[in-house]
Every structure is written in C-alpha cells, then in structure tokens.
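Query structure, 430 tokens:
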C-alpha cells in the first residue's frame, strides 16, 4: 500500500511515544521507508536504539550532527521526505511549530521542508482545551497543516477526555488514506470507512417573537461526541446542529439550524443518502403557532393604536389578559412539531435509525414504546433527572434498546460513552 513512500516520523516527549515502534512496524509492513527524528524529550520515554532497530535507518536527534550529510541533516531530510508525521505531538512542539521556531532538529525540519506536515496531538485533556493550544492548532490549520486527532478516553494521568494520540491502526489508515490508497483496503483498518452518518445534535429554538424563544437545556455535547467517534472510526459525518456553544469535531461537516422545521428539512434531505441516522438532538415538541412580527410588550396599553394595527400581536398566537395590570398574563398558542426521527425511519430506503429518549421517570418503559412506535432500529435512553449526567454535563449513562437486546452503558464521560455507542451501532449494521 505504501511502496516507495518516504515518511519522516517526528517523535516528541509524550507518554504515547511508547506506541511509536509499533507504528513504525505497521507502516513498514505497508512498504513505507521511515526515517525517525526525535526531540530530547522523546528520548526520555523511548530509546533511539529501539527506533533504529524497527525502522532500519539511523535515528536523527541533533540539529548539529557532524556525521550527517554535509553536516546539514535537516536539509537532507527536508528534501528526502514526501510526508512529515509528528506523533506524538505535545503541546510544546505544537506551540513551537505554530510560532515558526527552529530550536531543534524537528522544528527546523518542519520549516525547511516542502513536504506536507501532519500532527497527531497527544496531551492532557486540559492542555488540549487550553486557549493557547487551541489558538496554536487553529494557526496550524490555517497554514494547511493536517491535524489527526486527538482521540478521547482515559489518559495516563487518570483524566478522561480529548487528548489521547490516535491508536496505531487509525494512524496507519490515515496515512494510507492520505496517499489515496483504495478505500476498500483502508476499510480493513477503519470499520466505518465509506459510510455516511447523519447526526442531529443540540437543542432547537422555537421563536415567540424576534427576541424570545422556547428551547431546552441540551448542550449538544453527546451528539458532537458521537459524531467525533464515528468520524474517527472512518465514517463521513454530517452534523445537523441546533444552536450550541461548543466547537464541532475536526473533519465533520456541520449544517446549522435553529428550529425544528429547519432541522426536519435538512434531516429528510440528507437521510436519503445516509447509512446511519442518529437523532441525538433535543427537538422542541411544540412551537408557537404564529411568530409575532415585533417584540411582544408587557404593557400593550402603553403603546398607541398604530402599533396594534401593524399586527404587533397576532390574536391566534397568544392571549394577553388583564392588560391594565402591571403584570398581564400571556397565553401562547402552541402547535406540535413534526417527529423528525419517525419520519426518517418511515423512508422507503431508510438508514439504520437511532433515536434518543431523555426521560425523567419510567425510562425503560417509555424508551421501548418509542422504539416500537417510531420503527427505530435502536434507541438510547437516559434519565436526565439524575444529577451529574445528561443535559449540560460532561458525563452520561445510557441504556440501549433494540427489538431483542438491552445494553447498559454505565456513567462515564460523554466522549468515552460515544465510542461505546458507535461500537454497538457498528455491530448491528448490515
């Protein structure tokens, strides 16, 4: 698969360096020629001798190597490489490359080479989310540097979250994909390759007037985590997202919507060409029958007749009682929103359809009823009344139901939980 490909593999000082001998072996098995460059920090985790043995080439670790060709090792490697992959890439090396520093062999090589540069981040989850790191990553992306990862899960320090270096099979598959190796071969390494997943996420906002709306507490974290897990397993992922304040996973397409009706339009169009549809969004059950053209005032009698004549307050939208009081009551006329996941599940050639049931009581009973009534293939149910899980939390617990199975997924981070949900879906795909 990689015959004749020349890859410089840069290793910086992270605990994930212990995985790199295996990565070298797997890339060489595919025919790649690997030259390893190490930082001083990397040598604290793994020895140059080990990497020399598995790569079959001398390891470079010094900018001022008198034994290198013409004592200009970085120029030699810069011209030789057709891909530079830095794995693991620590927050430090990301920062130095972002700022164009050249204070060791690896960073100098990055400046001197015209080869594509790929970075596989690996660090503590708090370091990954730090504003400085995210700024540096965005700066690199703007310079066409490719970012693979990070993955999510338990870390060496005990934290759980984004920051883990992608596993070796994922990195090998991504290298093959980079060189445009045929997808059916990559499929053996990434179980969801060639699949298209549509995932709805976040809340919807149902407008009352130009400044007010009906919504709920959904943050979008669970849906975005599932999207990230599916993408890392090889799927092409499109997120139909309601209004959220979190960043979308890298390499996922995002279609932004506000209302349930907008989400429905996008879902029914995209689902027709999808392999999997995951309805994780917390869609508002009801919307206002008619949205007021202007802001509804608390004391309508304080405003002149002209504002009333401009249909400021459509009568079929609400009823305002006791107008002469300081706090008049307002009654909204609501109509039911469409059931998006049920409509997707009713399509002639429907995708594998997964629903979510956020309940506060009788969770299993309600979830099983929805599974059957909506013709779903699988439903993920959770009790949002429990503290520390569900809406706006970083953690969650789910029970998955199919027509024959019940799978309990205990409380864990949403990122970790998403990987398990994706794995359970993947098992059941035709």
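Result returned for the query:
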């Amino acid at each position: 698969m990689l015959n004749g490909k020349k890859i410089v593999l840069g290793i910086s000082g992270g605990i994930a360096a212990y995985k790199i001998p295996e990565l070298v072996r797997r890339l060489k098995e595919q025919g790649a020629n690997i030259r390893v460059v190490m930082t001083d920090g990397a040598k604290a985790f793994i020895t140059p001798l080990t990497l020399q043995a598995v790569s079959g080439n001398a390891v470079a670790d010094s900018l001022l190597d008198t034994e290198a060709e013409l004592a200009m090792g970085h120029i030699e490697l810069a011209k030789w490489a057709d891909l530079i992959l830095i794995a693991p890439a620590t927050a430090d090396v990301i920062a130095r490359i972002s700022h164009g520093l050249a204070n060791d062999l690896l960073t100098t090589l990055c400046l001197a080479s015209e080869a594509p540069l790929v970075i596989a981040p690996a660090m503590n989850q708090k370091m990954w989310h730090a504003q400085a790191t995210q700024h540096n990553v965005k700066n690199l992306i703007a310079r066409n540097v490719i970012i693979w990862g990070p993955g999510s899960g338990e870390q060496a320090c005990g934290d759980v979250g984004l920051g883990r270096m992608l596993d070796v099979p994922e990195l090998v598959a991504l290298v093959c994909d980079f060189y445009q190796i045929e997808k059916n071969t990559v499929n053996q390494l990434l179980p969801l390759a060639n699949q298209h997943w549509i995932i709805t996420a976040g809340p919807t906002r149902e407008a009352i007037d130009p400044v007010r709306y009906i919504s709920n507490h959904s943050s979008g974290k669970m849906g975005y985590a599932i999207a990230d897990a599916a993408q890392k397993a090889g799927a092409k992922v499109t997120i139909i997202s309601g209004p959220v304040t979190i960043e979308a996973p890298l390499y996922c397409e995002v279609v932004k919507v506000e209302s349930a009706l907008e989400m429905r339009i996008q879902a029914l169009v995209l689902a027709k060409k999808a392999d999997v549809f995951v309805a994780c969004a917390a869609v508002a059950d009801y919307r206002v029958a008619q949205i007021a053209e202007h802001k509804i005032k608390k004391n309508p009698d304080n405003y002149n007749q002209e504002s009333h004549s401009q249909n400021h307050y459509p009568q079929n939208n609400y009823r305002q009682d006791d107008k002469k009081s300081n706090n008049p009551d307002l009654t909204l006329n609501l109509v039911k929103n469409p059931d998006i996941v049920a409509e997707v599940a009713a399509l002639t050639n429907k995708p594998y359809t997964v629903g979510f049931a956020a309940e506060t009581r009788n969770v299993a009973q309600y979830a099983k009823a929805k599974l059957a009534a909506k013709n779903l293939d699988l439903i993920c149910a959770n009790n949002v009344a429990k503290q520390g899980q569900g809406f706006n939390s970083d953690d969650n617990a789910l029970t998955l139901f199919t027509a024959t199975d019940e799978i309990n997924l205990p409380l864990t981070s949403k990122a970790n939980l998403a990987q398990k949900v994706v794995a359970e879906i993947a098992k059941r795909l035709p």
